[in-house]
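Annotated sample (chain length 510).
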Amino acid sequence: MERVNRARRVWFLTRLVASALWAANLAHAEPGAARVVAQSGAGTWLTSNRDHVAISRELPTNAAGASEGEAVRLVFVGFASAPRQVRISTRRSGGQLLDTLSEPKLTLATCPPGSSSGSCWATPALRLTPDRLDREYTVARERSLEAELGGELQVESEQQALGAWRVGAPHSPAFAGLDRLSLKLRVRVLRLAPGGEPSIAGDAGSALLLARREVLAASQIWAQCGIDLQGPAGVEVQVVDPPPIQLLAVGCESGLPASGGMLSLRVAGRRLRVATHAGEAPRVVAERLARAVRALGLSARLSPNPRVSSGVSGAIDVLVRGAHGESSALASDADPRVPLSTDATLGICLGEVDLGNGLSHFVETDAAAGTLEERALIKAFDDGDPSTIELFIVPSFDQSGRIGESFIDDDGASIQNTIIIDRAALRAGPRSYALAHELGHILLDLPGHPDDYGVDQSSSLMDSDASDASAFGPRRLSLEDCERALRESGPSARIPLLSAWPLPAATSVR
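Output written by the structure step:
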């Protein structure tokens, strides 16, 4: 708490010094020079060379309320009469025109501190929206512009550029010194079967396009917190086959110790038999099995799983790959009369990914470990980098009502920072923002939903049951949400999922 208070004091002192310097610079500006300055909803004056503007997080209203801290009022200074042909526009990060507000309503206003005598005119409090849906809401349309994180707000009068500000992170002590944040996201669109159609669309090219659009929609929502899901290098998206059977779970879901017996299976076409002995824990047997696999010139990676509610201990997964990481299929012994395990208490289960009947998903009893099919899918594509968020798009889940799920960074979890959504999630679109919502569980380190134990807020992105495609649907992130994401997943977190990404300088104005 003391560190937080210290950060707040430093931030406020920094803003105080910046405001003083701003006033000093303005006092020495050329008298009568036409220019525009910006004032945030909190009353802070923003300079284009040191400050940025931010995306609105508030519900659209006819006039800016006291809580609309990111709204920005533009004040025109140095004009003998009301400025004419005023044009306010936003640009994408690449410079392309995004949105325009022409001839906004101007009213006489108090001039900024340090300005020369004369009259000043100001716009209403303008709100920068993350997408068109928010921008077009009727009551706030006249003071809204769609903006892009990393893009720019530009102001001109009579075709003369007067000022420009980059679009960045929220204005709060927690974000002091941070322009914006990025994360590493890998997207895998699963085919229904090897060589078959992708889970979404009818061909790979269309599937890649739809997946990128879904990431863009989620990125626009998280722009409220200054977070870009695509990052400097862009998001990585691939269409992939479901993995072959290459994972087996020693102990299955029961996790009982061995009674003694024999494990029998084929690995890359070769027979493998491993003995078990009474009293051995699943981990001991899994390690012996892994050594036998490696003796065949293959690789075997062990990963323990949390105990499910009905188990004695967690299963131990063994992922078998070729010596160079390539797939190496597992199967039961060629003789159908020979079981995978003759041990009465310790079995082994093959992890098969069969998307034809929907992906088997976790429920409350096995949420910490995930189902065997989920583990077989996710661990097959694991890149070993805990700071990367993995996204899998599958055709469907095996039970109706589920369109997305996430695995957060719990202690002891064998699956972390992973999201799975299905094509129904893409079809739901702004009714639920499934990808953005599931990402919230990870970034906020939030296993549940706020409305499960508090007041229902249907406009909150993290609401559990809202379904509304309007501007009042589940799409809002509060400042507290943004600060929590920074605290739990930011550059100073135990596993930093978010990296600082500086903004380029705003367009210079003569």
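Annotation: Confidence is low (pLDDT under 50) at residues 1-31.
Annotation: Residues 10 and 173 are 8 Å apart (CA to CA).
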